[in-house]
Amino acid sequence: MIDLQPYPALALALAHQAFDLDETSWAEADLQFGLDRLLGGYEQFVRSFEQ
């Protein structure tokens, strides 16, 4: 069990079940995050040749 004493805001959020109604599609969000990082890396790589 986590000691929530040092984290009163987190304790309050958990007490009010703030995370129970999460309707985020984590598989889709993870894919989007990874794709953004991958394409950003390619963009930087291509830009390094433009100088």
* Poorly predicted ranges: none
Mean pLDDT: 89
Q: Treating each run of at least 4 consecutive H or I residues as one helix, how many helices?
A: 2
Q: Helix- and strand-based class?
A: mainly alpha
Largest sheet, if any?
A: none
**What best-fitting shape do the alpha-carbon axes yield?**
elongated
The helicity comes to: 55-70%
Distance between the termini: 54 Å
Radius of gyration: 19 Å
What is the percentage of strand-forming residues? Answer: under 5%
Topology of helices and strands:
Layout: H1 8-15, H2 26-47
Describe the structure.
The chain contains two helices and no strands. The radius of gyration is 19 Å and the shape is elongated. By secondary structure, it is mainly alpha-helical. The termini are far apart. The model has no long low-confidence stretch (mean pLDDT 89).
Any descriptors?
51 residues; mainly alpha; 0% strand
Give the structure's gist in a few sentences.
The chain is an all-alpha fold. Helix content is 59%, strand content 0%. The chain has helices at 8-15, 26-47.
